[in-house]
Write a sequence for this structure.
């Protein structure tokens, strides 16, 4: 019969793999995990937290810029999209990064409807990723509290 | 893990850094600044950050700044990476400058950035694997 630790570790492994297979995360997230060590034990959580703060700020900027009916500064929107694409790429937020590519194209072609649609999708996607990573970090905590080690997951 | 005389050679896990690096990280994105800080720390270096090219230039104005390496983002408000690199070279800054570009940048844009005075260009996202061989090769040169 599996111990609690073994069950939690299996759950953690399965959940991590599903996040990659469903396209939420890519190899860059694996690179972040590799940088985490005893000198920087909370590094991934810190960077991810910064990323979600960045998302909120940039999405707010884009929403305000798109709210200027008839006078939208698409280059301003594009600049925020560019920044979001950079930060999402750096943390391995694959779906958010992908949406930013489409969003940038809408900015470049000055498609208001396209930009509004992309903004809505980016908002949904980053919130979804935030919830999933919170679940992942919670699983890590449970494993540690149960006296186990967080397993290395090969994708 | 072996440590020899202060400051010269450190071994960090299985990765050897031939000299302790002092790095200036220039990027307007706090996520990327944090990531690059940790990468530099993981290879035994120390770092300072600047939020844009203008801050990077201001850090050098009194002539006392001494960085082995500057990681320079390209697109930044106030002063972009190209302009900051040109200005730093005009100020006779001899640090290695590695430009950090995106995959969206085309060949002409990369070339213009290189011609501003970079030693090398890397595409985001940076990783330890990408940067370490480059730093060691450049330090050997």
């Amino acid at each position: 019969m599996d111990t609690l630790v073994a069950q939690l570790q299996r759950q953690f492994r399965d959940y991590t793999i599903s996040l990659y297979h469903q396209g939420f995360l890519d190899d860059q997230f694996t690179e972040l995990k590799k940088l985490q060590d005893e000198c920087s034990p909370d590094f991934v959580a810190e960077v991810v937290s910064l990323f979600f703060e960045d998302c909120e700020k940039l999405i707010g900027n884009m929403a305000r810029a798109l709210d200027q009916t008839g006078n939208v500064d698409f280059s301003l929107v594009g600049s925020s999209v560019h920044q979001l694409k950079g930060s999402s790429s750096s943390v391995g937020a694959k779906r958010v990064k992908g949406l930013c590519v489409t969003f940038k194209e809408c900015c470049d072609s000055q498609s208001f409807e396209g930009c509004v649609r992309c903004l809505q999708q980016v908002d949904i996607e980053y919130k979804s990723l935030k919830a999933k990573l919170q679940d992942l970090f919670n699983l890590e905590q449970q494993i540690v509290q149960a006296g186990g080690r967080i397993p290395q997951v090969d994708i | 893990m072996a440590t020899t005389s202060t400051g010269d050679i450190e071994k960090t896990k299985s990765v050897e850094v031939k000299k302790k690096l002092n790095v200036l990280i220039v990027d307007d994105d706090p996520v990327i600044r944090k990531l690059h800080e940790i990468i530099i720390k993981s290879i035994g270096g120390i770092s300072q950050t600047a939020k844009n090219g203008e801050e990077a230039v201001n850090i050098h104005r009194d002539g006392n700044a001494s960085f082995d390496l500057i990681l320079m983002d390209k697109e930044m408000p106030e002063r972009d990476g190209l302009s900051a690199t040109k200005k730093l070279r005009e100020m006779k800054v001899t640090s290695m400058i590695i430009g950090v570009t995106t995959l969206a940048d085309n060949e002409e844009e990369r070339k213009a950035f290189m011609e501003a005075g970079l030693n090398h260009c890397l595409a985001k996202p940076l990783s330890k694997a990408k940067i370490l061989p480059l730093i060691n090769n450049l330090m050997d040169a």
